[in-house]
Structure to design on (769 residues):
């Protein structure tokens, strides 16, 4: 009897807790598809009252104060975000006209030399016909942390009137005036977000009050994409040169959606809706969901917004994520998104370590220390100076609280990086706080990405060098060392290399679309910065905060592709987003500045899951010869094959589509500028993939196919010759794959169309089982 009573009590408690949990409200996004039939003008808005009426139908009348919208989507697509209980969200998801309902996700924020490197050092000399070309009509929208309008990268000298088609605004804030916008920075928006108090604070309240950037991320990406030419730019003397964006005459519109804590998905969706209405040509988003938390395309705010942007001829470029080098980490993988991986450029930063025995080691990192080789300091390993009762494993990793501060002061400390949870920045702050003289980090990973330690002496070395340093410490009674200030290494080779942090494919959502698409510079990129001191020691003694900063990430690679797309759009104003994307993909290079195949940070030849089709080549992309036009019908087919219902796709596209029998296998046939096949069995018949190309070169041209396939995989092209004329500007061909003798796992290769002038390169990835 007692047992039954306990069981009854537990069941009651469970039911009670479930009921309480169900009454907790949190922000949800309610997505209702395309806002208007036949893509009518985005000026025709859906009244807010329509969405409020729907909301009032599921919220009890006694809680009428909750009938309020956080965001209202009414231009390119329909929907809203609001505070709902789980029960209310479920009720709405079954409502006619609602495509999907999902909790508002929190997304994360993922130059002098980089454009010169792309333009010349990879053999991309500018054609004389385009050198003098200038256009000021292209508008790029950057959805990020806002912008620092006073940066010299956003001056408007010599730039003409704002395009008459611009419908955006320059929102004022407590520290941002309308006069902060100009003919270069033509628009700026910020968004107030809903705050939920108490333990249920799931929504970010940041980004309130002003479009001004307080973090620097948005300022950096904006100037990389479209900053004007600024001579003698540098980061305290490092990376000195002329800073510029990919298309210095392009107009910038800033949409502030993020704070240091992250970015609200519902707010990003609102910014995309606004940017389309405002009249931007390209949207650049260096933000994404964590690769561990990917959801399907109808629960991803960037994928939803980008679909409707593509419908209206607006290109969306996104970062691939910073969760590499593991596979299946790439994000922003919808086929209508241009997904960008990160590489280094031909410049590196070195910080030399000198030991008391005269040996020196070249390490990586940025520091502006005032140490010299003539003065040495005591050298210790972290586990030798552990605080009482602290495991040596924590001390050797320089965990917060793991070291005896009295034994740290005045010494150079060696730390290892066994634990990925403690960042380089945290280790540095631990030692700085303990008044150490400097830090040597032993870590085989991330040496390709120079950590910025400010005025604090820092260098990062590999395991081999680390072993030698520990041997030295153990071999002498009073080991000493010094860390010299960073020097710049120009003409660094090889470059490009795939950055270690850059997220890898294949996509976990569908392996039948090859992702990432392309690679662009994203390591140690100099661009405009918020001139402030984040923490003690970040600004060298006697210097003012820098107007430029050096940052790394796919966040930095994304605006390089956005800038390249602007550049092409300025020359080919009528090209669609998919034509521009195709041009950048089929002309990308897979060779480095040593004229050898591109490698990754482990020195292995890189594959398409790491670098996509290769490093962008903006100048070559102006004249690609052939392009793959991926239209909205292709994307609708993709949604069909992916498994979404006719009803959902009709709501999204406002078309009368009737899907064929669904098969993810058919996704490989979408007219994409690369080919990916998730499964090709050795015992199956030939698999045939279809592609259609459009001639954008001279009318009369004959292209011949050249296949480069791995051993054992039989790849044939039918026909292997394409003949274009004034009457025939679009042709279809088939590629067959036969795997009987192929190696198991992924097989990578390429198909190139050649006409004597153009080199139309397409990459394939085929998984053989």
């Amino acid at each position: 009897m007692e047992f039954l009573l306990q069981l009854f009590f537990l069941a009651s408690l469970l039911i009670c807790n479930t009921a309480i949990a169900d009454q907790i409200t949190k922000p949800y996004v309610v997505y209702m598809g395309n806002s208007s039939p036949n893509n009518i003008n985005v000026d025709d808005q859906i009244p807010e009252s329509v969405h409020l009426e729907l909301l009032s139908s599921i919220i009890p009348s006694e809680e009428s104060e909750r009938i309020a919208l956080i965001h209202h989507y009414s231009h390119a697509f329909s929907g809203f975000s609001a505070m709902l209980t789980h029960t209310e969200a479920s009720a709405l998801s079954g409502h006619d006209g609602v495509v999907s309902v999902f909790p508002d996700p929190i997304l994360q924020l993922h130059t002098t030399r980089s454009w010169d490197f792309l333009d010349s050092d990879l053999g991309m000399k500018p054609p004389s016909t385009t050198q003098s070309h200038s256009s000021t009509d292209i508008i790029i929208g950057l959805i990020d942390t806002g912008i620092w309008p006073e940066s010299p990268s956003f001056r408007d000298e010599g730039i003409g009137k704002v395009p008459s088609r611009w419908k955006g605004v320059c929102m004022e804030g407590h520290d941002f005036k309308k006069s902060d916008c100009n003919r270069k920075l033509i628009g700026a928006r910020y968004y107030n977000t809903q705050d939920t108090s108490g333990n249920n604070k799931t929504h970010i309240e940041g980004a309130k009050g002003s479009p001004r950037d307080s973090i620097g991320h948005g300022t950096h990406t904006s100037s990389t994409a479209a900053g004007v030419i600024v001579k003698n730019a540098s980061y305290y003397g490092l990376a000195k040169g002329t800073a510029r964006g990919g298309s210095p005459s392009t107009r910038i519109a800033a949409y502030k959606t993020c704070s240091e804590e992250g970015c609200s998905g519902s707010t990003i969706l609102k910014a995309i809706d606004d940017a389309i209405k405002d009249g931007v040509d390209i949207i650049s988003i260096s933000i994404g969901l964590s690769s561990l938390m990917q959801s399907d395309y109808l629960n991803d705010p960037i994928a939803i917004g980008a679909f409707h942007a593509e419908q209206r001829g607006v290109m969306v470029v996104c970062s691939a994520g910073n969760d590499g080098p593991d596979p299946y980490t790439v994000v922003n993988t919808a086929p209508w998104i241009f997904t960008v991986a990160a590489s280094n450029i031909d410049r590196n930063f070195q910080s030399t370590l000198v030991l008391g025995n005269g040996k020196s080691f070249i390490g990586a990192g940025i520091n502006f220390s005032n140490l010299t080789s003539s003065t040495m300091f005591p050298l210790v390993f972290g586990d030798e100076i552990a605080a009482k009762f602290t495991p040596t494993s924590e001390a050797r990793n320089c965990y917060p609280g793991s070291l005896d501060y009295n034994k740290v002061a005045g010494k150079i400390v060696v730390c290892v990086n066994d634990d990925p949870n403690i960042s380089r920045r945290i280790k540095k702050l631990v030692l700085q706080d303990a008044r150490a003289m400097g830090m040597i980090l032993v870590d085989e990973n991330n040496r390709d990405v120079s950590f910025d330690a400010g005025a604090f002496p820092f260098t990062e070395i590999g395991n081999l060098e680390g072993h030698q340093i520990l041997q030295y410490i153990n071999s002498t009674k009073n080991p000493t060392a010094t860390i010299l200030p960073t020097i710049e290494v120009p003409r660094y080779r090889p470059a490009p290399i795939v950055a270690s942090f850059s997220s890898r494919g294949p996509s976990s959502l569908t392996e039948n679309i090859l992702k990432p698409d392309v690679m662009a510079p994203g390591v140690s990129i100099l661009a405009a910065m918020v001139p402030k001191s984040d923490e003690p020691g970040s600004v060298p003694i006697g210097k003012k905060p820098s107007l430029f900063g050096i940052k790394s990430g796919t966040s930095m690679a994304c605006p390089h592709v956005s800038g390249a797309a602007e550049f092409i759009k300025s020359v080919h104003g009528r090209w669609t987003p998919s034509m521009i994307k195709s041009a950048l993909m089929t002309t990308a290079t897979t060779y480095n500045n040593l004229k050898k195949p591109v490698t990754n940070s482990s020195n292995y030849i890189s594959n398409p899951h790491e670098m996509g089709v290769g490093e962008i080549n903006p100048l070559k992309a102006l004249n690609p010869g052939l392009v793959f036009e991926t239209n909205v019908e292709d994307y609708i087919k993709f949604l069909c094959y992916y498994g979404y219902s006719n009803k959902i796709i009709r709501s999204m596209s406002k078309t009368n589509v009737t899907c064929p029998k669904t098969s993810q296998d058919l996704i490989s046939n979408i007219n994409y500028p690369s080919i990916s096949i998730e499964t090709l069995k050795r015992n199956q018949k030939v698999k045939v993939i279809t592609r259609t190309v459009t001639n954008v070169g001279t009318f009369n041209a004959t292209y011949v196919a050249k296949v480069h396939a791995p051993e054992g995989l039989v790849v044939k092209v039918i026909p292997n010759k394409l003949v274009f004329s004034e009457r025939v500007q679009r042709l279809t061909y088939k590629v067959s794959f036969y795997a009987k003798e192929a190696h198991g796992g992924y097989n990578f290769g390429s198909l190139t169309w050649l006409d004597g002038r153009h080199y139309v390169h397409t990459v394939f990835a085929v998984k053989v089982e």
